[in-house]
Amino acid sequence: MYRSNTPSNTGTEMRRLTEGRNISRGAQALLDHLLRLEKYRTDRRAVEIHLSRLSREHNQEHHRRIAYSMLRSSLQGLQGEIFLCANHDLFFVGLKSDGAAISAAIEKQRHLFKDDPLFTAARADDTPRFVNDYDLNTDYQALLRHVRGIVVEEDRALAEKRRKERTKQDKRQDRSKHPLDLNRLARLEKVLASADISNLIRQQPVCAIAGDMMPKRVLVECFTSIDDLERVLMPGTDMARNRGLFQYLTQILDNRMLAFLKHDHGHRFEHYFSVNLNVASVLSPAFLNFDSNLPVGSRGTVVIELQQPDVFADLKAFAFARDFIKERDYRICLDGVTRESINFVDTKKMGADLVKLHWHNDLPREVGNGAGAEFRDALNRIGAEHVILHRCETEEAVQFGHQMGIPMFQGHHVDALLPVSEKAGTRSALAH
After folding, report:
1. Do 245 and 328 belong together in one domain?
2. Which residues fall within 8 angstroms of residue 319, CB to CB, at 6 or more apart?
3. What are the tens digits of pLDDT across the range 264-307?
4. pLDDT digit string (tens) for 399-432?
C-alpha cells in the first residue's frame, strides 16, 4: 500500500499542562493501564474528576493548570497514576488502602471550584456529577466500557482535526507542487536504487472487533509512506498526479519493499502480515528473490495485497501470478474494492482469501438509497467474514461494518482503540 500519512500531534496546551512527571496523557494510556491491571484489580480504586463539566468561567487554562498541580501535590507519594484526557477530565487509579488521601484530594478539587454552578445549583438525581468513583473489583467492566467510549470520542475529534489539517495542507501543496515527470522519476529511481527506505516504511494493523469487545490484531500491513517519500527524497513534487508515472514508481517501491522484507525478517514471520504489490511485481525477479529467501514454513503468514484495478487491467497476468503465489502457499487480499466494484468480485474464481473494502462517509447513505440489497448480496456471495473495512476514521465505520456482518477493520480509529499488548500481537486469528 502506498499512502499519505499526516502525523497527528496533540496541542501545545496539552504538552504544557502534562509536564508533571506522573501525569499520563490520553484515554488510550488509561485504557492500556486498566487492561494491565485486570488480574490485579481487587485492591484498586479509580476516581474520575470531570473538569469538563465546569462552566466556562471556571474552565480556563489557568484553572486547569492549578487543578492539575494541586492533584499531583495531593497524591504525591501514593501508589497510582494520574491520566489526563483530551477533554481535560482527570483519572486517578490507585490503591483502596489510600482511600483517605484520595478523598482528601477530591475535596480539595471540590473546594477549588466551590463557586461553580455545578455545585451551587439545586441538585437533582440526573445532575451530572463532578466526581465518579469506581471499585475495580466490582466496576471493572463498566469502567472499561466507559473509558473505551472516551477513547472513541477522542479519536473522533482527532480524526476531524486531521481531516481539516489535511484539507488545508492539500490546498497549500496543490498550489506549490510540481507533477512527477520523466526527469524527476529518473532522479528518484536512481536515488531509490541505493537508499535505505526503512524510515519510509510504516505498519498498520488489521483488527477483528466483535460488538463491544476490544480489538484483536489479525495481521499487520507494511506499506510505503508517499508523504514521507515526497518530503525526504523529492520535496515539492506531487508523486500521484501523473497516474502512469506513479504506477511505474510503485513498481520501483515494490522492489525496495521486497528487498527490505528479505533483510529484515526478525519476528515478522511469526505473525501474519501483508504487503501491497503490483501484479507485475509478483512476476518480477525481485519477488522470486524474496520468495527464495523466506524462512522455512513462513509463506503461509504472508498476505499479498493486489489492487482490484490492477488485477482487472490484465486478467491473464493476474491469473498467472495468482496460480504462482497460491501454489507457494501465500494468501491473497483483493484491495481497492468499492461499493460499486464489489459486484464484480468473485473470490472463488480469483482465489482471493480476503477482500479490502474502502470506507467513506457517504457509504451508509449510498447503501440506504436503493443499493443496499445489491451490496448485501455481494457481501453474502463473498462471505462478509472475509471482508476488511479499510480507512476507518470514526466509530461510525465500525458500526456500519457490524451492521453488514463485517468483522475486520483497519484505520486510524482502530489504531486508537488497540491496546498496547495487541500492537505487538500474538499468533493471528487467521491461523484458525
Report:
1. yes
2. none
3. 654 555 678 899 999 999 999 999 999 988 877 788 889 999 99
4. 999 999 999 999 988 887 776 655 544 334 444 3
Question: What pLDDT, in 10s, does the model give residues 84-120?
Answer: 998 889 999 999 999 899 999 999 999 999 888 888 7
Distance of CA 380 to the CA centre of its chain: 27
Q: Which residue has the cell 495487541?
A: 422
**Count of C-beta atoms within a 10 Å radius of residue 374:** 14
Distance CA 361, CA 341 (A): 17
Q: CB pairs under 8 A, 24+ apart, for 53-62?
A: 53/118, 53/128, 53/129, 53/130, 54/113, 54/116, 54/118, 55/116, 55/117, 55/118, 57/116, 58/113, 58/115, 58/116, 59/88, 61/13, 61/17
Strand segments (E) across 226-317: 237-238, 273-277, 302-307
Same domain, 281 and 338: yes
End-to-end Cα separation, the chain, in angstroms:
26
User: Which has more pLDDT, 9 or 323?
Assistant: 323
Q: Let me know whether 265 and 400 are in one domain.
A: yes
CATH number at residue 105: 3.30.70
Q: What are phi and psi of 278, to 5 degrees?
A: -75, 155
Give the structural domain span for 78.
12-146
